[in-house]
Amino acid sequence: MNRYPLLALGASALFLQACMFSPGMHMDTDRLISDDSAENSLVEVVEITPKLIAQDQSVNGKMTIPQALLDYQPENYRIGANDALFITVWDHPELTIPGGQQQPSGANARVVRDDGTLFYPFIGNVQVEGLTLEELREIIADRLARFIEQPQVDVNVIEYNSQKIIVSGAFMNPGFIPVDAQRLTLLQAVGLAGIDPERADLSNLTLTRDGTTYNLDYDRLTSNTSNIGEVYLRRGDKLHLGLNDSRKVFVMGEVGTPRALPYSTSRMTLSEVLATVGGPSPETSSGKEIYVIRGVENLENERATIFQLNAASPSAFILADQFEMEPQDVVFVGAAEVTRWNRFISQIFPSANILRTGVLINEDVSNND
């Protein structure tokens, strides 16, 4: 009888498990740099250094507002369809408040028809759409002068219904903001619409005007010195605040709580990411193996980038606090050498127990023979 079949089986299991097991999560960046294979040519490894930080800050710091938005200056309000006007003719209450003193001002309002015309006693239909309040006042006064000596006329809008700004996306109050005689800035419109802090991507505010869409990083423009307070809106403008559904950073490896981190602001640094997930594990992580993996949309024409931070030095925390993340970045913290060895041993021991059991069985068989 062959006395060692179980022993051989146990040794084979141990060998196979040792060959298949990869002890700990580890990224061999030296191999990525030196290997010219097709797979590894898809990535570029870049060390996070003060020079790299300075280059990124010079790019991110240049947040400007398109000149076309700054050039626009609001003009006097122009009357539109469905606006409700209150026309006063001094010393002539029959024209000013034909409904009587007891009626509210709205009951005595003159509403502009859909075709832009307005009927007024004595002078008939008047084309008022597109006129300023002063222009309409002069027209009414001139025509009433045929019937009233030196008429004193005043015109006011009591309901602004013709001109609106559309707001959509991650606002608390999406819909319409009416344009009235007061100049409306972009900041005021955002304040009226209200930002939804849970859903908003503050880096992705768009303003569409006359078919042209302008992309604005609202977070950076309001956090730094800019001219955003000088941007005025006009009728027909569309404001859209993007959602942060896809604005996430994924954290993996030897950290406290690996997970996906959503963020709504323009700037989230590597140190903020690590702090949010409990930091690199002090027992199992390698200070030399902190990576930020940044993909590209077209791998056929572009190379993905792996940024490496050597956190073994205290100065690395300064770099981490300045390194800005981008949506869909993957932060990977590798395992320390001792961690990989411990995990390797933890995989070996179950196999070793199988091997030991096989030896004991073979000894019992031999003794029984």
Structure in words:
The protein has 369 residues and is α+β, with helices and mostly antiparallel strands. Helices cover 31% and strands 25% of the residues. It contains 11 helices and 16 strands. The strands form 4 sheets. A 6-stranded mixed β-sheet has the order 1-15-14-16-12-13. The longest helix is centred in the last third of the chain and has 32 residues, at 337-368. It is rod-shaped, with a radius of gyration of 36 Å.
Compute the separation of the termini in Å.
9 Å
Q: Total strand count, please?
A: 16
**Main sheet attributes: strand count, strand direction, barrel closure:** 6 strands, mixed
Residues in helices, as a percent range: 25-40%
Largest sheet, spatial ordering of strands: 1-15-14-16-12-13
Radius of gyration based on Cα positions: 36 Å
Describe the global form.
rod-shaped
Q: Structural class per helix/strand content?
A: alpha+beta
Order of helices and strands: HHEHHEHEEEHEEEHEEHEEEHEEHEH
Mean of pLDDT? 80
What amount of the residues lies in strands?
Answer: 15-25%
What does the oligomeric state look like here? single chain
Poorly predicted spans:
1-23
**Number of helices in the DSSP assignment:** 11
Membrane topology: Multi-pass membrane protein
Protein name: Capsular biosynthesis protein
Family: Belongs to the BexD/CtrA/VexA family.
InterPro entries: Poly_export, Poly_export_N, SLBB_dom, Wza_C
